[in-house]
């Protein structure tokens, strides 16, 4: 079942437990943002989510495992454009964190017991670099317990649609072992990024019941989403945002 709100412009994560202070969403291609200017698009998406952030943060993503904690050292009255960062966390209210994707996985994180949130952009490179686990590690270093974390994904390419090279299959086998094949995360040369993100969260103690993987595939559903594999690199990008609103 596809869960959409706002005239089909936003994916609603209805499975994710409602937390009073937590706001989040992923755009669909029905969002007609006015320009390719990412700062403007982030501001328009905030309006669509009915958020009124004091700061909006995004990054020129590079498929790295670099994580930035957004705290008071930033001028929190602006659009903040980071460079080379693929995951962000914050404990600050009204600071909207955003990632851009088209087939890559937007991964959301929150501590259910206190306001601390994160978001990551995970393609195959970020997944191979265990970016999801590094974000969870950052939560733990900031005092969170894994059993209090919830982790969920936005729309991203499915395993059936995502064929990779033999060389890349071997890189993943070397990093994660045969469990990938035992759990059907890799079938022949098809990689299921979302299942591998779930495995990474479970390995660090996040409860399986607290991990929510959307079945929505960006390539299967090009009527709803942008797909790099389906449309090429000039395709648009989906925005995924998360914010603490107290
Ligand atoms: Zn698919």
Description:
The protein is an alpha/beta fold and 246 residues long. The chain has a single domain, classed as CNF1/YfiH-like putative cysteine hydrolases (4-Layer Sandwich). The longest helix is centred in the N-terminal third of the chain and has 11 residues. The protein is 23% helix and 27% strand. Bound molecules: zinc ion. Zinc ion (ZN) binds next to loops.
Describe this structure in a few short sentences.
By secondary structure, the protein is an alpha/beta fold. It has helices at residues 38-48, 124-128, 131-141, 166-176, 179-182, 193-203, 228-231, and strands spanning 4-5, 10-11, 22-27, 55-60, 67-70, 79-83, 87-90, 95-101, 105-111, 117-122, 149-153, 186-187, 190-191, 211-212, 238-244.
Give the helix/strand layout.
Blueprint: E1 4-5, E2 10-11, E3 22-27, H1 38-48, E4 55-60, E5 67-70, E6 79-83, E7 87-90, E8 95-101, E9 105-111, E10 117-122, H2 124-128, H3 131-141, E11 149-153, H4 166-176, H5 179-182, E12 186-187, E13 190-191, H6 193-203, E14 211-212, H7 228-231, E15 238-244
Parallel strand pairs: 4-6, 4-8, 5-7, 11-14
Antiparallel strand pairs: 1-2, 2-3, 3-15, 7-10, 8-15, 9-10, 9-11, 12-13
The structure holds zinc ion (ZN).
List keywords for this structure.
single chain, 246 residues, alpha/beta, CNF1/YfiH-like putative cysteine hydrolases, seven-stranded mixed β-sheet, six-stranded mixed β-sheet, 7 helices, 23% helix, binds zinc ion
Q: Label the CATH architecture.
A: 4-Layer Sandwich
Number of strands: 15
The structure class reads alpha/beta
Biggest sheet, open or closed, and with what strands and sense?
7 strands, mixed
Total number of domains: 1
Major β-sheet strand ordering: 1-2-3-15-8-4-6
Rg, rounded, reads 17 Å
Order of helices and strands: EEEHEEEEEEEHHEHHEEHEHE
Which range best describes the helical content: under 10%, 10-25%, 25-40%, 40-55%, 55-70% or over 70%? 10-25%
Anisotropy-based shape: globular
The CATH superfamily turns out to be CNF1/YfiH-like putative cysteine hydrolases
Ranges where pLDDT stays below 50 over 5 or more residues in a row are: none
| pLDDT averaged residue by residue | 96
Subunit arrangement of the protein = single chain
Number of helices: 7
């Amino acid at each position: 079942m596809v869960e959409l709100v706002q005239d089909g412009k936003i994916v609603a994560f209805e499975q994710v437990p409602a937390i009073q202070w937590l706001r989040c969403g992923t755009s669909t291609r029905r969002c007609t943002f006015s320009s390719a200017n990412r700062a403007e698009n982030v501001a328009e998406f905030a309006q669509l989510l009915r958020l009124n952030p004091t700061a909006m943060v995004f990054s020129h993503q590079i498929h790295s495992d670099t994580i930035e904690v957004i705290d008071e050292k930033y001028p929190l009255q602006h659009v903040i454009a980071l460079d080379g960062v693929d995951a962000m966390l914050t404990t600050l209210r009204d600071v909207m964190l955003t990632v851009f994707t088209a087939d890559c996985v937007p991964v959301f994180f929150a501590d259910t017991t206190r306001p601390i949130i994160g978001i990551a952009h995970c393609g195959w490179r970020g997944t191979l670099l265990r970016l999801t686990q590094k974000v969870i590690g950052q939560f733990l270093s900031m005092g969170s317990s894994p059993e209090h974390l919830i982790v969920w994904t936005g729309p991203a390419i499915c395993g059936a649609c995502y064929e990779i090279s033999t060389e890349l299959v071997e890189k993943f086998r070397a990093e994660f072992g045969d469990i990938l094949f035992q759990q059907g995360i890799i079938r022949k040369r098809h990689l299921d990024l979302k299942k591998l993100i779930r495995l990474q969260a479970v390995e660090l103690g996040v409860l399986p019941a607290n991990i929510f993987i959307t079945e929505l595939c960006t390539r299967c559903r090009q009527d709803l989403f942008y797909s790099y594999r389906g449309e090429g690199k000039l395709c648009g990008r989906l925005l995924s945002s998360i914010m603490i609103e107290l």
